Amino acid sequence: MSIDLTPGTWNLDLAHTEIGFAVRHAGISKVRGQFTDAEATLVIGDTPTGSSVTATVKTASFDSNDENRDAHVKGTDFFDVEQFPTMTFASVNAQGSGEEFKLAGDLTIKGITKPVTFDVEFGGMAIDPFGATRAGFSATTQISRKEFGLTWNAMLDAGGVLVGDKVTIVIDSAFVLPAS
Q: What is the pLDDT at residue 25?
């Protein structure tokens, strides 16, 4: 990874970030939603190996724009937000050059940790009208929800299942470098 960012600890700007997902529903369409409460830090070191990303997402912030579905997904059939209030990501390395690279790390959902790799695009860096230094990134990956203990499902009369196994995670994020 060779992005020219100022070394330091950058903080997630949640107001300008979306942590979204899509999963196949009834085998015919996709349900989309997002998590609305998260914290993350991007540490830029003097070298790519000295850089890292860590993130914590509050599972109770799950929002698919349907109150009944949201309550079900927050319950024990899926996220069990009472017992597992957060999911986390910690990077282990980044590979590639230029504005597109792969970010590998450990994703933990419901106490189960698995390696994942995000395809990341650097959106650029800018100083906003208020003097804050900002950097933007878009990232995508696909996971098997069953590998993270999210196994609930229902059979359809015509065959198949109600909820697909593959979940696509899409993140559009902004990070801010605190003024020194």
A: 79
